[in-house]
Amino acid sequence: MAAGLIFIQAFFYEGLMAYRTIYEARLRMKKDLTLNQLLVKSFLFALGNLCSLYLMMIFMTYNGILCLSLVIGAFAGHLFFTVWCPAPGDAERPRSCCS
User: Is residue 17 part of a domain?
Assistant: First the structure.
């Protein structure tokens, strides 16, 4: 049960980091940011740090099953969110695992 929850946590952590990277890249194109955009960027940064701290504390338990599920979840999340789910606005650019 706990291993499944940790798998899901790591999976969506990778999605959060992918979305944050896309959001920050779009913000870099603009010259001046609104307060709302700065708040969203700060919230995504804080949420990412909170999740990474939680995942780090799981590794500190030295429970092999939990650590393995975290690694597999992060791997699956990274593949899903960066390879198979193109970012909005990137539909014209084909994605592949080798590029």
Answer: yes
Domain extent for 67:
2-84
Sign of CA dihedral 91, 92, 95, 99: negative
Structural domain contains residue 94: no
Find out whether 24 and 41 touch, Cβ atoms under 8 Å: yes
Average pLDDT value for the chain = 75
Q: Which residue has the tokens 């194109």?
A: 29
Provide the number of structural domains found in the chain: 1
Q: Is there a contact between 4 and 68 (Cβ–Cβ < 8 Å)?
A: no
Give buried/exposed letters for 11-49 (b at 16+ CB in 10 A, else e). bebbebbbebebeeeeeeeeeeeeeeeeeeeeebeeeee
Whether residue 78 is predicted with pLDDT greater than 80 in this model: the reply is no
pTM: 0.59
